[in-house]
Prior knowledge:
Blueprint: E1 5-10, H1 14-24, E2 30-36, H2 39-49, E3 53-56, H3 65-75, E4 80-85, H4 90-98, E5 103-106, H5 111-122, E6 127-128, H6 130-135, H7 149-159, H8 164-171, H9 175-189, H10 194-203
Parallel strand pairs: 1-2, 1-3, 3-4, 4-5, 5-6
Helix pairs in contact: 2-3, 7-9, 7-10, 8-9
Amino acid sequence: MTNMVKIMIVDDHPMVAKGIQSILETYEDITIVGTLHNGQDAVEQVAYLQPDVILMDLNMPKLGGLSATEILLERYPSLRILILSMHDNPQYISSALSHGAMGYVLKDVPTDEIKLAIDTLMRGKHYLCTGAEGSLNPNSDHEREALTGREQTILLCLAQGQSNKEVANALDISVRTVETHRKNIKRKLGISSTAGLTRYALDHGVLQGTGTNL
């Protein structure tokens, strides 16, 4: 008897989510345990649905894909998360990987490649589709150093208007540590102002639900 792979789809576009579900349901070894429309619902329902793999969109209301990925993996480290996005920007891809996602697939790939990505994650390996690999070129002279998961979390807090002290209290770290992370974030991104950090967070899917049209 084939071991069924339990898939949870998280995408704020119902027609897209339904289309992905219909495609994956044609495979005999896949069962869809839930189709949700934002990261907050994913965080709240993952314990009940118990998926093996989550197909996660990036830009969603309430809680975006990056933040949801980080929260989910903090609580369930063995969970496999595959980002399924239309964005091939290197910063999106590197941000997703630094948050702990095991794979990144563009939404316009053939159906078989989504299945291949799922199978690869189930074997405990990472997967990048061809388009994502092409965008994330490690030999590029212009490739920025990726932010760590903790730096992404602090960037989110700062972009939401929190002070260094508020961030320190929320993450149970010292103000000096926050200041160090803040300097490293600005250095890696080549950004000198808090306003610039907020703009970066909005443009790259870190800060969600703030009225931007992404």
